[in-house]
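Sharing a chain and its predicted structure for anyone who wants a worked example. Both blocks are below, sequence first, C-alpha cells second.
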Amino acid sequence: MAVRYISVISLMFACSGCTINKYPAAGLEHENHVAEITLEKEGCPSGCPEYTMTLTRPKRVILTGRANMEHIGNFHFNLNRSLQDSIWRVIDQANFMEMKDQYHIDTEDTQMRILHIKWDGTNEEKRILFKALIPHDLTAVEKMLDRLAASGEWKRD
C-alpha cells in the first residue's frame, strides 16, 4: 500500500512541471502554441502572387487575393483534420521567437513578405519582414502557406 502511494506521489512530482498540450494533433508540448499566423505577400517586378492569408487555430483560413493568382478577392475555408495536423505541426516547430525581426529587406526586385504571429494565451505578437536568405523553419512555413493559398478549397465571402 505504501509503495502505491509513493509511486503516485512520485508521478505527481515528476509531472508537476509538465505542460498540458491543448492541441494534441500537433504532437508537441509547448507552453503556448501559435494561435494565429498571417502571411502578407506584396508585389514584385516579375508578377509574384499578391495576397494576405490568415490561419486561426484550429482550422479557419481566410485569403484576400490581390493580384497574379487564381483567387482575387476575399475567400475562406476550413482545414480538414489531416491538414490541421500537418500545418500546425510545421508552425509549432518553427522557433519564431528566436528569429530576427527582418531578413534582407533592402534587396531590390524581390518580393517583400511579412509574417505576423500571435500566441495562444498571451498578448505576445511578432512580425517578421523578409525577402531573402531566411532561416529553414521560416522557409518551410512560407512554402506550406504558399501551397495552401494556391490549392485551398476556397469559398468566396
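Comments welcome. The two ends are 63 Å apart (CA to CA).
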